């Protein structure tokens, strides 16, 4: 399998180079040249596999340059860190299936991809006798999952900037309680945007980037999407163990990474009926799907902060397919976005979009009410992101079908909001209460690029 760019500016590369490149060097996103198709017979033969075995079957179809033995070991190591034997178990509550993706170390679905990516980086760097310095900005979830994905790994250092006092308490502790020598937390006196701007500036300094082998961990790495494709297969196999009803997925969406993984699963032949894209008030993707309106608005802060995004970085991957894999049309669309703040599509293209997805935006009042009602009816706690997807599924998907809702975070990770909704305190799992006793390490710095650069240069491995 070889990988190409949505902007058409690179010659095809292999999997390992795609992982190391992250963002394509022409500014586009990397995609496989085709999606391997899985026959119904093949799919049936996967019913008896456990999660890691299934992950190997799916992932190995996209990887030709790592030996099956090494790939298997790498996958097993990644999912051994999950606290549930099934890795991503499916539970049925109130007529919907909840796909629990939060049994990894940082209690959010990002662990599924970042445990795998951390092991991949380590493997490739060792083979190439190279090292990598990851720099990233986070509002909470990605940073903590990335830190846990690479802590203690050879050849990798990680520097994560977060806005001081602006993440949830649990998110901050999940980052700062990691005191491995290769992990550097920087709490910035400023906002998430300040953090992100400074990271962009460091990457923009090409000499600096080259000299220190800078790497990124944002959601555009193909390996992250690939790891997420697996649980669509896993969930589909588990519901169809029980029933032949049509299968729908409801996906709370921010950067379009998780839902794009579902689209890939469908392209591989997984019989998914509907992919329901659920957004919060930051609803540019819903406006696009329902009203052909892809125009940038302002980001508003909501109770589901990991979805407070206007420009969904993975959306370009879908646009490439929508535009019949014509990189020129992709470049035009992004030029239009830059100049006029919107992307326009033809009626024919929009018909395709509505065939691929349906969408709804769920406001904060309905999100909080869903947490409350779901708990009242089932005694099951939803985190606010998951609640957005559950509300969408209950409203839009037929009750006599199999409605699978992706649970993207553990409710304890956003306990402030869950408690606000319920009016009483919710119990925290041991992995959360233990955080409070642990030693922490974190550098507090002003939002000043020179201070950040100086810290990096003195701490780099
Ligand atoms: C990142 C995140 C999302 C959004 O996922 P995307 O892949 O960016 O669409 C939803 N919920 C939680 C809890 C997250 O951390």
Which bin fits the share of residues in helices? 40-55%
In terms of structural class, how would the helical and strand content be classed? alpha/beta
Low-confidence stretches: none
Strand content: 5-15%
Strand count, sense and barrel status of the largest sheet are: 6 strands, mixed
**Integer average pLDDT:** 95
CATH topology label of the domain at 90-107 and 223-422: Rossmann fold
Topology:
Layout: E1 3-5, H1 15-21, E2 30-32, H2 40-45, H3 51-60, H4 68-80, E3 90-93, E4 96-100, H5 110-128, E5 132-137, H6 141-150, E6 156-163, H7 169-176, E7 183-189, H8 192-204, H9 206-211, E8 214-215, H10 222-242, E9 247-252, H11 257-267, E10 274-279, H12 284-291, E11 294-295, H13 315-322, H14 327-340, E12 342-343, H15 347-356, E13 358-361, H16 364-378, H17 384-396, E14 402-407, H18 415-422, H19 430-433, E15 443-446, H20 449-459
Parallel strand pairs: 4-14, 5-6, 5-8, 6-7, 7-15, 9-10, 9-14, 10-13
Antiparallel strand pairs: 1-2, 3-4, 11-12
Helix pairs in contact: 3-4, 3-10, 4-5, 5-6, 5-10, 6-7, 10-11, 16-17, 16-18
This protein binds pyridoxal-5'-phosphate.
The site of pyridoxal-5'-phosphate has 16 residues, from helix 11.
């Amino acid at each position: 399998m070889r990988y190409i760019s949505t902007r058409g500016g690179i010659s095809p590369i292999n999997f390992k180079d795609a992982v190391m490149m992250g963002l394509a060097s022409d500014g586009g996103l990397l995609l496989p040249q085709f999606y391997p198709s899985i026959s119904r017979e093949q799919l049936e033969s996967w019913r008896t596999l456990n999660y890691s075995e299934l992950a190997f079957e799916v992932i190995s179809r996209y990887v030709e340059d790592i030996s099956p033995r090494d790939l298997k070991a790498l996958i097993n190591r990644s999912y051994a860190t999950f606290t549930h034997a099934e890795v991503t178990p499916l539970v049925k509550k109130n007529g919907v299936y909840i796909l629990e993706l939060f049994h990894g170390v940082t209690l959010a679905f990002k662990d599924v991809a970042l445990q795998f990516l951390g092991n991949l980086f380590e493997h490739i760097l060792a083979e190439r006798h190279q090292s990598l310095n990851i720099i990233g900005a986070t509002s909470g979830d990605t940073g903590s999952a990335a830190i846990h994905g690479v802590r203690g790994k050879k050849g990798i250092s990680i520097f994560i900037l977060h806005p001081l006092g602006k993440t949830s308490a649990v998110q901050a502790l999940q980052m700062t309680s990691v005191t491995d020598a290769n992990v550097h937390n920087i709490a910035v006196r400023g906002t998430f945007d300040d953090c992100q701007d400074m990271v962009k500036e460091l990457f923009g300094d090409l000499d600096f980037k080259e000299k220190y082998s800078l790497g990124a961990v944002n959601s555009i790495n193909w390996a992250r999407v690939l790891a997420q494709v697996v649980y669509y297969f896993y969930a589909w196999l588990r519901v169809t163990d029980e029933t032949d009803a049509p299968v729908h997925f409801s996906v709370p969406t921010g950067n379009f990474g998780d839902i794009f993984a579902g689209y890939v699963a469908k392209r591989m032949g997984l019989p998914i009926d509907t992919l329901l894209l659920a957004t919060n008030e930051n609803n540019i993707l819903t406006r696009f799907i329902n009203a052909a309106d892809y125009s940038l608005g302002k980001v508003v802060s909501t109770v589901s902060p990991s979805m407070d995004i206007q420009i969904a970085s993975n959306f370009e991957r879908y646009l490439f397919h929508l535009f019949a894999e014509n990189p020129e049309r992709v470049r035009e669309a992004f030029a239009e976005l830059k100049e006029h703040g919107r992307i326009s599509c033809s009626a024919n293209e929009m018909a395709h979009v509505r065939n691929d997805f349906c969408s709804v935006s769920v406001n904060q009042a309905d999100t909080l009410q869903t947490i409350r009602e779901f708990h009242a009816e089932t005694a099951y706690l939803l985190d606010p992101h998951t609640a957005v997807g559950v509300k969408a599924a209950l409203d839009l998907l037929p009750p006599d079908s199999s409605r699978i809702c992706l649970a993207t975070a553990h409710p304890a990770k956003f306990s402030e909001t869950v408690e606000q909704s319920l009016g009483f305190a919710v119990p925290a799992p041991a992995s959360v209460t233990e955080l409070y006793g642990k030693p922490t390490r974190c550098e507090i710095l002003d939002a000043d690029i020179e201070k950040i650069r100086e810290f990096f240069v003195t701490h780099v491995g």
